Amino acid sequence: MNNLYENNMKTLSKALEYCDTDFSHEEIINVLSSDDDVKKQLCILNLNYLYNQSEADVLVSNLTLHSGPVRETSSYKILDFILNPDYNGFFQSENIINSFISAVADINPSVSRNAVQILKYVQNSEYIYKSLINIINNLLENIDNESKNRSYIQNKKNFSLYWNLEAIISISDKITPGHELIEILKKTAKSSDYTIREKTAKTAKIFSLKNQNFIIVSDLLKNDENIYVKKFI
Fold it and tell me: What does pTM read for this prediction?
């Protein structure tokens, strides 16, 4: 307990010290490549400009495979930049898009939520869609929709499924899905998890405006008694 307290106090002391430091742009970019997570979070928050592609690449590199606070801070900053036409072009490479797609199912819901929003501003929506379809199909191969099992692994898979469906919804105005998504929704409509059925109903409702065949999915859920599912039927 004492060691934990001491570590927390050291972290707080470092944070206060960094707050009083006026970092230059070059220093901020260098910190983004460092292992000092406390300093990195503050520098990401203070990153107000991107001068080239390599700086955008460094920022996006912190969106995955880093500590939760760093990933979350990065997701907020990336969303802030990609909304800006001056910086949007820095976030269109395939490697960067792959990072965004990976972040969709982050264990931190704030990162997932931001990643879903970020995808709206990526130009290659078809690439995103095909990638998400592949991810979802792989998930469904390993999910027992009839199971009542609430194990960590099962919940993690459902969590990922939930957010990847939400990601598809986020780009709904840019894509025209066909039978591949309908077949997925036929499976997710049978999920024992009501949040997955709710997301299924929402997806079917949105895309039925473009393709009447999606009504098939809505029909599968018309007798669902969950109120969150009903609101989309």
Answer: 0.88
